[in-house]
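Model the whole thing, not chain by chain.
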Amino acid sequence: MNSLYDKVKKNLIWKSVFRRDYRDNARSRAMAIFGNVFLHLHPVKVRESAVKLRYTWGMGGITFLAFIILTITGVVLMFYYHPTVDLAYLDMKDLEFQAPYGVISRNLHRWAAHFMVIVVMIHMFRVFMTGSYKAPRQFNWGIGVILLVLTFLLSFTGYLLPWDQLGFWAITVGTNMGAATPLLGFQGPFSEYLHITPYNDVRFALLGGASVGGNALLRSYIWHCIAIPLISIILMFVHFWRVRKDGGISRPQH
Amino acid sequence: MARENQNTTRLRAQIFAGLSVALLLLSAWVIWDDEFGLRPWKHYQKEYKALKHEKLDKEYQEALRDFKRSGGARRLEMLEKQLAKAEDAFKQKGVHERYVKLNAQLDDLHAKMALSQKELQTVRGQYLETEYYFTKTQKPEYKKKMDELQKQIDVIDRSNKELLAKDEPLRLEISKLTGGMNEIRAEIEAMKKGLEERKEKIANNDKAPIEIKQYMIKDTDKADRCVSCHAGIESSLQVSQKQPYTKHPLGFVYIGKHDPGKFGCTFCHRGQGRATTTIEKAHGNVKHFAEPMLKGDMTQTSCLNCHGDIKNLRGAEKIAGNTELIRKYGCYSCHKIPGYEGMGDVGPELTNVGTKVNYSWAVKWLMDPKKYFSTARMPKFFFTKDQAESIADYLFSISGTTRHDVDYAAETPNAALVEKGKGLWSQARCNLCHMTNGKGGNHIKVYAPDLSKAGSKLNKTWMFNWIKDPNKYYPGTKMPRFRFTDEEIKALVEYITSEYQDDDAEANYTAPSEIKAASIKKGKDLIQQYGCYGCHKIQGMEMVQVAPSLKSQGVTFLRSDEMREKIGTELSSIGSKPVDLLDFGKLKKSIPNDRLSYIKQKLRDPRGFRLGLRMPNFGLTEKEVNELAAVLYGFTDSNVPTRFLVPSRQELERMAGVPSYKFTGDFAKVIADLKCTNCHSIKGIGADYAPDLSIVGSKLQESWIRSFLANPDVIRPLLQQMPKLGLTGGVKPAKITMPKFNLGKQRVEDTNRTDVDVVMNYFQQELVTPDIPKDIPVLVDVAMPEQLAQGKKLYDQKGCVSCHQIGSDGGALGPNLSNVGNRLRPGFIFKHLENSRKFKPDIVEPNYGFTERERIFLTNYLMTLKLTAK
């Protein structure tokens, strides 16, 4: 038995993957955090009061979990989806009727999306109520606000992708609001001073045209699947990093 | 951690463990659901395979039993024994060696024969070449060479024959050696073949994988997975009567002519072809799915997608019958409907209606036509008495008359005239088109007015002028001009007025009363508002409504065709109109919110959805509502690939730029008068009620046509009573024939020929076909009496007598042939016997495949059948 244990554990391959032992001492625990690319964003040490669920509600972490679920299911969905006017809706139908685990993938993606929007707002509420936006965390509050907007944008751009009536008109309404933006939208006040027309305003930029069509679908797709997730990931890491640098997760002041 | 309460730690561990188990179970359920729950077709396919296996196996067992019973099994056993014996014998050493040797000899012989054959060809070629030079130059040396070559040929020929003579004995010897092994093998194989094939079918069925099956049709964006559950739909084998295992009904039309690989399923049936998870989803019976599946007869509505002409289309009988309703009620008068452009007015011209009818009648009629006649086609507009009076006032004022009634019931009719009129009425067969007291009329689709109450409605002077020349009052009418004398017309008018009185008729204005200008103005507004001009020609209102966009610019009436718009909604794509564009109004909650329900409700109660709607109520029966809705449902703008389209003949001719047929010369005048095309079809114009006259000149003899026109008679007694064998059921109409027009009495305008002469001339000049010869070939080798006897024999042999009548013998399905020798031209009979469907595709007569000689015999025989007492 022992020899088998030695054989498995005492070789280069094992050691190159598991580079530390599990002895319960401070160094070993610290090494677990340092040595792991995913965990090194996390503070090496956490105060006991910081894990009080009643104080933080764990909402930030749960939001991140939802994001991970969305990323995984989103990638699965991308295998079956063409962002074209002819095929988008039919692909969605095929996900429902035909693709293996298509229903669970799509539904998980949808549930997690709703969940993330709700949870991220509760997270913000908690941060506000505990005063965790105060110094030295002002900068991270700002990052958080941007992340909130990005979460909403992810939701908004994803709404068009099924290419059904609901999404089509939601995006029509949403982008028409853009058209009424002061200065930037052709229907907004003062836009005439900037020579804004339906063909160079912010709505045009969002839709790739003056109405919802194939270009809008493609733009939504790129924003939804690549651009916004990339920006979000970068900002999330800044967010987590700032949590650590600003003295760890906020906790009751004793 | 160490300081944590032990109990808390335990609780957390328990919660974690519980959640883990729940997640595991959930994952297991997800896997199960994806494998089976969401794929019910797996079960159906398995079930279908089992049913098919059962059926095929039963057939196999039956075949096996038959095989045994017929002695096949015993014979097979015997053959197998023989084969074994022969094989044993063949295996003996000497025999086999000899077999090989003989075979080698045979091969050698064949090689020699091939060589010698080739040599022969070469020499023959040289011979022909030499012969050519000789004929050209006549030089003797060529002749000499030819002789030489001929000798060579003879030599080779002889050796060839010798070789050939060796072949047969060699083969015989070889076959003796093998003991007929090969023949036995072949027979065994043939005996086993049928059973083997059945076994293979069963094996193939068992091997078939359980998988999603679908038809992908690229250009219509379809992936129809219906066959995943309906696995046997394409098969010719019915394994079960239960859904989804049945085969397609009338499959040889619907599947046979529409390869599912090219058309898919949803192109005709609609429904959600991609869905496979539940029956409701697949059939499209789910919320927000706009195209629920069409089932049964309703599916025929899809024929309209591609077929331009569905009249005689196999499998489209229901929908073809339903489209008649559009014509009957003239939907196209107010709505734009593709394929119904320029159909003519449904109602009579109203410009001079004041001279035609009683004022009281007009008001009563306007208020509720169905109350006056339950068969009335005019819909109810829900006019109040006041409104109806205003409309009548306007119409009477443009006729230049006042409010007036004539009450003929108060007068005593001239009995002698009535008696004479009665005779003329039946002689002219007025009842053919006009219904009186529930008799006659209706089955001819000309929709002539019911005359049961005509005496209390019509003005005598008007009636006289009308019968004398209907075109004068209303050029678009279907009423023919009968060749009556003035005296006869007077008698007919007297008869109609006295016989067909309405007991409930009112006559409030026997003393004429003036019309107020305000009422006229109001009447005109009402006519414009409700679009009476859609169905009736009214002078000064020939133009239909102006498009709303133009109206906002102050344009009220236009003379340009392109800018006109019908008063009702365009119906070109009503069958695919998005449901959210249909205004359910106050019925939103009380009827199902789908397209078909909307259409049906609209037909049932056109103004029920909200206030301000103008469509009148046609008082349709529920059956008519369903039929009409089925047709409307077929008017779609669905994406139909051009390769599917089957345009009608008219469309094809229009596309090819072939000018449509027009009657010319004096015949055009006669036809405008007699309206032959009400019943007859000529060169694609007219109705299919009476025989097609397109080739009448080649078909019928002149003398017979003349006598028929003078006194029309029934030719196909049963067919006329039961069009198309009457398989559709319905009311059995009375025996009818052509009306008697009294032709030949009058000269055609601007000519000195009678109308019969004009008709005859046109028949013989225009309505002929080069496909039918004037005379038939003459047989010189058989004497005429012998030919006639042969013809008679054929007539009896082939059972012609079961449908045709000669004298008093025979059936009545086909024309009576007693006088056929006087009626038909021999060329027509001759060609008709060759292929009866050539000139009349839907004929019931079978094709017997006569030889030319037989056809000559029969034709000659039939031409002797003449009634002498003419």
